[in-house]
Amino acid sequence: MKVFSTLRADQIDLSRTSAEGVAGLKSFLEYAEKGKKAVSIVSLHDQLKNKSLTDIIANKIRECGYEVHTNIGCSGYRVDIGIVNTDNKSEYLLGILCDGYNYKSAKTVRDREIIQQDILRLLGWNIYRVWTMDWIDNHEKVISEIIRAINQAQMSMGKKPNDEINDLEISFQEKQITEKPVEQVIIQKDYVSYKVDYVSAPIHFCGVLPDEFTHLNGRN
Predict the structure, then answer these.
(1) Dihedral angle, C-alpha 128, 129, 133, 138, nearest 10 °
(2) FRET partner for 144 with CA separation of 20 to 30 A, picked from 5, 94, 117, 169?
(3) Rounded to an integer, what distance in angstroms lies between the CA atom of residue 30 and that of residue 96?
(4) What is the spatial distance between Cα 44 and Cα 185, in angstroms, rounded to a whole number?
(5) Cβ neighbours of residue 8 under 8 Å, at least 6 residues apart?
(6) Left if phi > 0, otherwise alpha if psi is -120 to 50, otherwise beta: which for 209?
(7) How far apart are CA 83 and CA 96, in angstroms?
(8) What pLDDT, in 10s, does the model give residues 92-146?
(9) Using one digit for the tens of pLDDT, what is the confidence trace for 14-54?
């Protein structure tokens, strides 16, 4: 993406307005100019707030032998926990969303329940949701389900779509068409041909004809 703008991020003074759109524009221009270095002190403070259940789950997954990253992303839609694909360190096998600070900071229910997950899935993420109450009730079960989800992600990522197509054995059975000569069909049933007879009938006039009609017929 290339951004053309007559403004720079440092030219936007947020002290003069409280509009969220202006703040978003400033952050966008700052990110376009500096990349990930544009993450502000506020966002770093937000990441520190998110330590609790996220870090506990991440440590448990690390104990199982997986490489784990936390608080992935620079936007408001961060992934709380990401399990790294060891075959390709630039990919994540699974993204885990918790109901911690990132979840609570979403402005609307639609943002946190629908939009965030839909956007992440469109970006290629395999998403798994962990709820605090489930963790408190039975954290061992949650960890086992996470490991199962990681294994399923490994299997799905290890098989390309082209391989799936090649594995399908498709057989086509061609139908053989045999040509036969056309036989003349003779109808044995007796039938009577239909004939239309035209019978001429005389025209009889009743009463006196109008003068116009008699004039046209030469009888005047």
Answers:
(1) 0
(2) 117
(3) 28
(4) 93
(5) 29, 33
(6) beta
(7) 8
(8) 999 999 887 777 777 777 776 777 777 788 888 889 999 888 888 888 999 999 9
(9) 777 777 787 778 877 877 777 655 555 455 445 445 557 88
The torsion region of residue 100 among left (phi > 0), alpha (psi -120 to 50) and beta comes to beta
Ordered by start, the domain boundaries in the chain are 1-38, 41-160
Q: What is the DSSP string of 105-158?
A: T-SSHHIIIIIHHHHHHHTT--EEEE-HHHHHH-HHHHHHHHHHHHHHHHHHHH
For residue 40, CA distances in Å to 26, 33, 108, 112, 157 come to 11, 13, 23, 22, 34
- DSSP state for residue 70 in the 8-state scheme: E
What Å distances lie between residue 73 and 44, 47, 68, CA to CA?
Answer: 12, 11, 14
The pTM assigned to this predicted structure is: 0.48
Among the residues of the chain, which ranges form H helices? Answer: 20-34, 41-49, 53-63, 101-104, 109-110, 116-122, 132-137, 139-158, 161-167, 211-216
Of 175, 183, 205, the residue nearest 217 (C-alpha)? 205
Both tokens of 132, joined, read 């605090």
What CATH architecture does domain 41-160 belong to?
3-Layer(aba) Sandwich (3.40)
Going by DSSP bridges, is the β-strand pair 127-130/88-98 parallel, antiparallel, or unpaired?
parallel
Phi first, then psi, for residue 52 (nearest 5°) are: 165, -110
